[in-house]
Design brief:
With 370 residues, this protein is of the alpha/beta class. The chain contains 15 helices and ten strands. Helix 1 packs parallel to helix 5, helix 6 packs across helix 7 and helix 12 runs antiparallel to helix 13.
């Protein structure tokens, strides 16, 4: 195989690769001073001038594009991207970033403006349910969505990480108190109270010694911890980050979707020796394919995975009977609440949030900071 060169995060190349290679992409959205949406993570562009003069929200979309920042309009002009989004069972997780305090922009109004602009930009696309999620670390996201009568599903990311600051380690330290006093059970109750069935969380809630910090008995992705996790979720969709290769099997086996930095197409095996299939939701493998790949030799595996990629039907191509079987199987395994009829009621609309996905963080994985 040719060596893969990872594209710059949130670039068109990265987003197109992630959309093709995995179940979809996550990217960061901000609003330029002319009201246009741009895809960028940080609060300001690189440089040596005053922060206020470099804040994304204080610059025009033309200025930002000249510095390599992708306008959202350029992304949705890419047909191969939008067709996968509309018809290929792919998921797009759009994280709304809020401005640095130096801009003096009010968060509620800013989020509301972004929501209105995003709906305008997507108006002609007729996206299926389960294909689009808007998330934010801002605790104002639910109020802004309600006030603006936003039509897309939203969720708040946990723990609360402030929207500004130059250094990730500092942001992480500031977030620790909120992490320490929150739990999966509490987050699930909070989200349901705000009429959402989607959770976005740091993987530390689910794995490692950090899960013992949270209030109550800890959840996990193995054993009794997994039982408690499934009980708390009841079918709620969960997106966890970061999602290292060594945790993929256990996370997917617990009904968790992964926001992954592992988008190298040459990585076809997990650390435990099992094969890696990066599209479990948008291109689910049938049993025969799984057996063939599992039983293949090292020399055959790469070719078999490539053959499966070009041969296995996408979610949009699967008949309703097979979709129903897949949804019911996942619902039973993950102990969703409600009946099978309820789970499959909107079977033609898209993939339920409780189906595990692998999506590319910032397209093809982060290339700086967090």
């Amino acid at each position: 195989m040719e060596q893969w060169k990872q594209p710059k995060e949130n670039s068109l190349e990265a987003l197109l690769h992630g959309m093709n290679f995995s179940d979809g992409v996550e990217f960061d959205l901000r609003m330029a001073n002319d009201g246009s949406l741009v895809i960028y993570h940080d609060e300001f562009v690189p440089g040596s001038g005053a922060i206020k003069e470099r804040c994304i929200e204080n610059l025009s979309s033309a200025e930002l594009k000249s510095q390599g920042i992708v306008p959202f309009g350029d992304l949705i002009a890419e047909k191969v991207f939008t067709e996968s989004w509309q018809y290929g069972g792919k998921t797009v997780d759009i994280e709304f970033k809020v401005p640095h305090p130096v801009t003096r922009k009010l968060v509620d109004g800013y989020l509301g403006s972004m929501m209105s602009k995003l709906e305008d930009d997507l108006e002609e696309m007729d996206l299926p349910e389960g294909s689009t999620l808007v998330s934010s670390f801002s605790p104002r996201i639910f109020k802004a969505a309600k006030t603006s009568q936003f039509s897309l599903p939203v969720t708040r990311l946990m723990p609360h990480i402030r929207s500004w600051g130059r250094y990730w380690k500092v942001k992480r330290a500031v977030a620790m108190p909120h992490f320490a006093r929150s739990s999966i059970h509490g987050i699930a109750r909070y989200l349901r109270k705000n009429n959402t069935n989607i959770m976005g969380i740091a993987v530390e809630y689910l794995s490692g010694w950090t899960r013992w910090i949270n209030p109550g008995v800890p959840v996990g992705i193995k054993g009794r911890g997994r039982d408690r996790l499934l009980s708390a979720l009841g079918g709620m969709g969960v997106f966890a980050w970061p999602a290292p290769l060594e945790l993929e099997e256990a996370l997917i086996g617990s009904g968790i979707s992964l926001v992954s930095d592992e988008m190298d197409p040459n990585v076809i095996e997990r650390p435990d020796g099992g094969f890696r299939w990066p599209r479990p939701a948008s291109q689910p493998l049938e049993g025969d394919w799984v057996k063939r790949i599992e039983n293949s030799s090292d020399g055959e595996r790469s070719d078999l995975i490539e053959e499966a990629r070009s041969s296995v039907a996408s979610w949009g191509e699967i008949g309703e009977k097979r979709r129903r079987e897949l949804i019911i199987d996942q619902g039973n395994k993950m102990r969703w609440v409600g009946s099978e009829e309820k789970w499959t009621d909107n079977i033609g609309d898209g993939i339920p949030w409780g189906m595990s996905r692998i999506i590319g963080h910032r397209g093809s994985g982060k290339t700086h900071g967090w």
